[in-house]
Design a protein that fits this description.
With 157 residues, the chain is of the alpha+beta class. The protein has 4 helices and 4 strands. It is globular, with a radius of gyration of 17 Å.
Length: 157
């Protein structure tokens, strides 16, 4: 059976993530890493989420992640994701979520509706089982417009 791990890097869990990196390397299990995100300021938890005051810590984590990749850990995510995180925290407009542009990737909810995002879990008025080839362009356009709206507030990988 093919498996992979997914882990979210938070302010309070880097030691546990480091242990997962060792497990990943020793067992040849690919791992995807992402930084914890919050949807709005009210959800920000300083014990979990990074802020612009954490730049030194983020650079340290990034160095360790990239070193782990060089040492054989199969980290799925591109180096640019980790290297760009300080720019995201500085509110620069440079990151483009790839959800809307992926080929062959459409997230479906348990009822068959296409989700508008892999993080927000909203849904479009399209059911995947009923989707026609002609509707696919419209679906992609809706997803791309959504990325334009949320891109400054989400650093999804």
């Amino acid at each position: 059976m093919r498996v992979r791990m997914n882990a979210v890097v938070c302010r309070n869990n880097w030691p546990a993530i480091q242990e997962l990196l060792v497990v990943s390397r020793e067992n040849h299990i690919p791992i995807s890493l992402g930084f914890a995100m919050y949807r709005n300021e009210a959800e920000f938890d300083p014990n979990v989420h990074f802020s612009a005051t954490d730049i030194d810590r983020i650079h340290s984590i990034t160095r360790q992640v990239l070193k782990a990749k060089r040492n054989g850990v199969k980290i799925i995510d591109p180096d640019a994701y980790f290297q760009g995180y300080p720019r995201f925290l500085a509110r620069e407009r440079f990151w483009l979520c790839n959800y809307a542009t992926r080929r062959g990737w459409i997230n479906i909810d348990p009822y068959g509706f296409i989700r508008d995002c892999t993080k927000k879990f909203g849904r479009l008025n399209y059911r995947f089982p009923d989707l026609t080839r002609d509707e696919l362009a419209a679906v992609r356009a809706i997803l791309a417009a959504g990325v334009e709206k949320c891109n400054r507030d989400c650093y999804s990988n």
